[in-house]
C-alpha cells in the first residue's frame, strides 16, 4: 500500500496538472528588454480577461534563452521573448535539457536607434563610421591584411564632418538580442566591406566573427545592462553621449532623445516598415508546448498576441512602437500559433 501511495504521488507531480498542483497558476515569461513593453501590454490585456496577469521579466534575449532552455519542468519559464531568432546552439541546449517541443512565433519588427539628447545637434552618420567608432580593432589603413587597435578617440577622428567630441556610446551587454543584432547589422556588414575580410567570412566564419564582432573596451563603449530606460536617462544627463536601443524606446521618449540619421535615413515607423532604415530586425517569442496542458492560459495569451487587434496594422502594439509584419506573414504565424507548430531539431 505504501508503494502504491508513493507511486501515485510521483504520478501526480509529473501529470499535466502538476503546475497547478504545486501552486503555480500564473504564466511565467522572461527574455528581451525590447519585446518586454509589448509582452507587458498583451499580458495586461489578457489579465483583465482572465483575472491572472502573466509575470513578465526583462532579462535580455540571451538570459531568457538560458533560463528557458534550462529544462522542461515547472521551475523553468513557459515563454521567452527574443529580439532575434533563437540560435542553433540555444535550441541544442533546449533539446539536451528535455525541452523539445518549442513553438516559434514571429511578432513584428523593430529598428535599432543610435540616439542622443534632443538638446544636442542631430548626428548624421553611416554604419561604417559607427563601426569605426566602436570596433575594438580595425583593418589597417595601409592596405595590409591585418587588424590594429582602434585609434579613434573623437568622432572627428573618423571623419572631419563629424563633431569633435569624445566617442561615448552607451549600449546593451553581450546577453542582449539588441547587441547581437547591432553587431550583425552594423559591425559585420561594415567589416566585410573590406575585400579580405569579406572573403574570410566565406572561408572561416569563426575567424571573421572574432575579428569583426568585438566592441572596444577602453571606455568609449559603456554597457548599461538590460535597462533601456536607464540609457535614456544617461543621454539626458550627458549631452555628448549616444545610446543604442530599440525604436520603441525612442518613440516612447521622443520628447527627450532623437534618433541619428544613419545612411541618410532616420528611424521612423515608415522607414523601418519599408526597409529603408537598414538597422532593423524581427522580434519573436517562444513557447513550451508541453506547458500548455498544465497552464491552458498560455494558448489564450498566444491568441491575444497574434490577434489583429494586437499586432495588426492598426493594432495596439503598433501604437507602442512595434512595426507590424505584412498581413500574409501575420496570417502564417497566427496559423502556426493556433496549430502549435514546433521547431525541428535543426533550424
Write the layout of secondary structure elements.
Layout: H1 2-14, H2 18-21, E1 28-31, H3 36-50, E2 55-56, H4 61-68, E3 79-82, H5 88-96, E4 102-117, E5 124-125, H6 127-134, E6 137-139, E7 147-149, H7 155-158, E8 169-171, H8 177-191, H9 195-203, H10 205-212, E9 221-223, H11 228-237, E10 242-246, H12 247-252, E11 257-259, E12 261-262, H13 269-274, E13 280-288, H14 289-292, H15 297-305, H16 308-311, H17 327-339
Parallel strand pairs: 1-2, 1-3, 5-12, 8-9, 8-10
Antiparallel strand pairs: 3-13, 4-10, 4-11, 4-13, 6-7
Helix pairs in contact: 3-15, 6-8, 9-10
Throw out a few tags for this protein.
two-stranded parallel ribbon, alpha/beta, single chain
Tell me briefly what this model is.
The chain is of the alpha/beta class.
Distance between the termini: 49 Å
Helix fraction by DSSP (H/I, runs of at least 4)? 40-55%
Strand segment count: 13
Low-confidence stretches: 1-21
Main beta-sheet annotation: 9 strands, mixed
Helix and strand content put the structural class at alpha/beta
Shape: globular
- The arrangement of helices and strands along the chain is HHEHEHEHEEHEEHEHHHEHEHEEHEHHHH
Q: Helix count, per DSSP?
A: 17
Oligomer designation: single chain
- Which percent range describes the beta-strand content? 15-25%
What gyration radius follows from the Cα positions, in whole Å? Answer: 22 Å
Instruction: Give the integer mean of the pLDDT values.
Output: 91
Structure characterization notes:
By secondary structure, the protein is of the alpha/beta class. Helices cover 42% and strands 17% of the residues. It has 17 helices and 13 strands. It has helices at 2-14, 18-21, 36-50, 61-68, 88-96, 127-134, 155-158, 177-191, 195-203, 205-212, 228-237, 247-252, 269-274, 289-292, 297-305, 308-311, 327-339; strands at 28-31, 55-56, 79-82, 102-117, 124-125, 137-139, 147-149, 169-171, 221-223, 242-246, 257-259, 261-262, 280-288. Strands 1, 2, 3, 4, 8, 9, 10, 11 and 13 form a nine-stranded mixed sheet that branches. It has a two-stranded parallel sheet with strand order 5-12. It has a two-stranded antiparallel ribbon with strand order 6-7. The model is unreliable at 1-21 (pLDDT under 50).
Amino acid at each position: 500500500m505504501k508503494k502504491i501511495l508513493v507511486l501515485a504521488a510521483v504520478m501526480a507531480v509529473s501529470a499535466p496538472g502538476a503546475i497547478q498542483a504545486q501552486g503555480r497558476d500564473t504564466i511565467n515569461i522572461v527574455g528581451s528588454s525590447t519585446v518586454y513593453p509589448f509582452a507587458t501590454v498583451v499580458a495586461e490585456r489578457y489579465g483583465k480577461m482572465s483575472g491572472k496577469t502573466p509575470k513578465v521579466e526583462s532579462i535580455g534575449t540571451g538570459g531568457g534563452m538560458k533560463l528557458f532552455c534550462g529544462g522542461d519542468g515547472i521551475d523553468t519559464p513557459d515563454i521567452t521573448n527574443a529580439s532575434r531568432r533563437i540560435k542553433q546552439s540555444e535550441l541544442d541546449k533546449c533539446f539536451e535539457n528535455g525541452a523539445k517541443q518549442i513553438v516559434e512565433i514571429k511578432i513584428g519588427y523593430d529598428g535599432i536607434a543610435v540616439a542622443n539628447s534632443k538638446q544636442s545637434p542631430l548626428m548624421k552618420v553611416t554604419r561604417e563610421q559607427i563601426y569605426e567608432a566602436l570596433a575594438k580593432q580595425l583593418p589597417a589603413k595601409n592596405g595590409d591584411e591585418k587588424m590594429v587597435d582602434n585609434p579613434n578617440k573623437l568622432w572627428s577622428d573618423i571623419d572631419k564632418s563629424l563633431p569633435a567630441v569624445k566617442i561615448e556610446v552607451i549600449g546593451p551587454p553581450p546577453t542582449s538580442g539588441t547587441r547581437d543584432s547591432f553587431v550583425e547589422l552594423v559591425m559585420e556588414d561594415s567589416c566585410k566591406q573590406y575585400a579580405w575580410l569579406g572573403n574570410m567570412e566565406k572561408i572561416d566564419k569563426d575567424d571573421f566573427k572574432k575579428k569583426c564582432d568585438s566592441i572596444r573596451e577602453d571606455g568609449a563603449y559603456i554597457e548599461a545592462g538590460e535597462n533601456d530606460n536607464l540609457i535614456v536617462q544617461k543621454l539626458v544627463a550627458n549631452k555628448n553621449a549616444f545610446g543604442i536601443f530599440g525604436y520603441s524606446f525612442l518613440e516612447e521618449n521622443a520628447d527627450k532623445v532623437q534618433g541619428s540619421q544613419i545612411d541618410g535615413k532616420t528611424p521612423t515607423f515608415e522607414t523601418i516598415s519599408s526597409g529603408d532604415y537598414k538597422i532593423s530586425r524581427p522580434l519573436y517569442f517562444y513557447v513550451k508546448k508541453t506547458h500548455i496542458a498544465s497552464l491552458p492560459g498560455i494558448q489564450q495569451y498566444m491568441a491575444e498576441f497574434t490577434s489583429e487587434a494586437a499586432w495588426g496594422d492598426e493594432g495596439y502594439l503598433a501604437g507602442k512602437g512595434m512595426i507590424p509584419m505584412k498581413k500574409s506573414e501575420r496570417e502564417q504565424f497566427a496559423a502556426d500559433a493556433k496549430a502549435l507548430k514546433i521547431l525541428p531539431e535543426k533550424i
